[in-house]
Specification:
With 247 residues, this protein is of the alpha/beta class. It has one domain: Aldolase class I (TIM Barrel), CATH 3.20.20.70. The chain has an eight-stranded parallel barrel, surrounded by five helices. Helix 8 links the parallel strand 7 and strand 8.
């Protein structure tokens, strides 16, 4: 696995975010003494991006945003554009299930993805079925295709596809390994047919320090998107360590 991404969602004041990022940075530097680290990305709330950027100084950690608007500027009160983010972050989460629950459609996600790619940022595109069925892989593949509808594949040098089955989020249990592997394989094939030959697939959905070993052995995966467990430096560092050990 190559990536471990922490999504802090709507947690942490600026001082809390600075302290947490500092503890995670220290923990990662200890791991790096003995083994190579994957690419670690933290996605704090917008209010803490600048302060966390000053703390990590992009040593062991890269920085990502949790969302973005598709326009570069304009009368969009409360929104953040790719242009405003590009001096702070390298990655942007797009289409998270919690955003989709708020009414974000595949069409909106597609516009955001195009804007992120145009700005030279790396998209973390979230997809995932609401219910576990035998058609899950094809449903998620359709979501992926519609989310990529606005872009020219050749313009996307890097794409991280975060597979997050909605029914597994917040349950404390990750999806079965065989199911994850099946969907990850289908997503990679779908991306390749579109023209994106190097799409990386991450898994997210109740990953924690106790179950991470079940996930890191899935060869079809390229990384993890971690939610609640990224708010504890000890848990998150343990997850990174498990990924690092497995190479």
């Amino acid at each position: 696995m190559q990536y471990v991404i922490g999504n802090w969602k709507m947690h942490c004041t600026v001082p809390e975010a600075v302290a947490l990022a500092g503890r995670i940075e220290d923990g990662l530097e200890d791991i790096a003494k003995d083994q190579p680290l994957p690419t670690v990305v933290l996605c704090p709330p917008f209010t803490a991006l600048s302060a966390v950027s000053d703390v990590i100084q992009h040593r062991s950690i890269s920085l990502g945003a949790q969302d973005v608007h598709w326009a570069d500027h304009g009368p969009h009160t409360g929104e953040i554009s790719p242009t405003q983010l590009k001096d702070l972050v390298q990655y942007v989460i797009i289409g998270h299930s919690e955003r989709r629950e708020s009414g974000e459609t595949n069409e909106i996600v597609a516009r955001k993805l195009k804007a992120v790619v145009t700005a030279g940022l790396i998209p973390i595109l979230c997809v995932g079925e609401k219910e576990l069925t035998s058609k899950a892989a094809s449903e998620v593949a359709t979501e992926l295709k519609e989310s990529l509808a606005e872009i020219e594949p050749k313009t996307v040098p890097d794409l991280l596809i975060a597979y997050e089955p909605v029914w597994a989020i917040g349950t404390g249990d990750v999806a079965e390994s065989g199911h994850i592997a099946e969907v990850a394989t289908h997503l990679k094939k779908t991306a390749a047919k579109i023209g994106i030959s190097d799409g990386q697939v991450l898994y997210g959905g109740s990953v924690d320090r106790d179950n991470v070993e079940r996930v890191v052995d899935i060869s079809e995966l390229d990384g993890l998107l971690v939610g609640g467990s990224s708010l504890s430096d000890q848990s998150f560092v343990s997850i990174v360590s498990a990924v690092s050990r497995h190479g």
